Amino acid sequence: MPVNLSGRSFLRLLDFSTEEIEYMLKLAKNFKDMKRAGVPHRYLEGKNIVLLFQKTSTRTRCAFEVGGMDLGMGVTYLDPGSSQMGKKESIEDTARVLGRFYDGIEFRGFAQSDVEELAEKAGVPVWNGLTDMWHPTQMLADALTIQENFNYDIKGKTLVFMGDLKNNMGRSLMVMCAKLGMNFVGCAPRDYWMDDELIKTCEKIAAEHDCTVRCTEDVKDAATGADIIYTDVWVSMGEPEEVWAERIKKLEPYRVTQEVMDMTAKDSIFLHCLPAFHDTNTTTGAEIAEKFGVTEMEVEDTVFEGPKSRVFEEAENRMHTIKAVMYATLK
Ligand code: CP
Ligand code: NVA
Question: In testing the pocket of ligand 1, which one of 236, 274, 319 has its CB within 8 Å of the most ligand atoms?
Fold first, then answer.
């Protein structure tokens, strides 16, 4: 049966079959080819979308804005400072209003239950642009980047995520790997692993796709022969400043260093969803350096800037993949 995602919301990868994910990846590749060739693709002309952000963003916001405009749509951006959402109006009421104005809604926020409520009440497709639990649109960009680097033959490849496994990225990557037939290795201290229930769910999905998921505290065990090394910030949006001290202490041994990259496969790549703390050229980076004497956090600058790094290709792919999600669900 052909894949049909029309009218569906995109809230977490767990809700989508492998076939549906692969369909969106193929669409994304087509959109990327069209964009590169300068072929117009205003397939959703006459439609309008709204982007709701309770947290800051560069890539996700711009990917939805440019993607929406390339598809011919009108795009409205709303942050908590310039809308009634949250302070004076509930998510439910906001959803019921916006669902009457717009054909699709992007939401970035804190609780996964908020984006789910929005989707339930809006009556139009809702796309999760990141919550504390999941970051599904990032997964499509990551999968496309991995496909491009391994000649679209990604089954059996091993992705190692080092750092805070409990966060939206660690959790989402584990699901993505299991669904697409890639081995997932989480590498962190035991108290930074994701919950056992999610690990068990992913083990089951992985078994159906001839791959494995596992977590380890041992960097050498994880990195040796790996195809993809992935990391993310040690402190995610919405977490209090006070956790920095503990994170640095616990996660420093899990920084992606050149030594780690040297253990990986010859054609391995480095990925990071960005933004990344790889130097002190940011306000937070400079503050952390002053306070803790740490000038690079989750990744060494030489790795970030090095020949295996694909982080900016990955960032570009946010736009092509988000375009695919909007097209698939709104056409
Ligand atoms: N990777 C990502 O979601 O980036 P932004 O926070 O800039 O949207
Ligand atoms: N884990 C990070 C991802 C940013 C794209 C955060 O939630 O801040």
Answer: 274
Say if ligand 2 is within 6 A of residue 237 CB: yes
149 C-beta closer than 6 A to ligand 1: no
Active site residue ranges: 108, 135, 138, 232, 273, 318
Which amino acid is residue 254, in one-letter code?
Answer: Y
Residue type, 47: K
pLDDT for 81 equals 84
What are the structure tokens assigned to 123, written together?
A: 């009556």
- Report which protein residue has its CA nearest ligand 2's atom 2: 236
First vs last Cα of the chain: how many Å apart?
18
Read off the pLDDT of residues 90-105 as tens digits, 9 standing for 90 and up. Answer: 989 998 999 999 999 9
pLDDT in tens, 219-253: 999 999 999 999 999 999 999 999 999 999 999 99
- With a 6 A CB cut-off, is 165 part of the ligand 2 pocket? no
When the pLDDT of each residue in the chain is averaged and rounded to a whole number, the result is 97
Which residues face 299 on adjacent strands? 256
Distance between CA atoms of 96 and 114, rounded to whole angstroms?
Answer: 13
Closest CA to 277 of 307, 298, 305, 292: 298
Q: At what angle do helices 168-180 and 196-208 cross, to 10 degrees?
A: 20
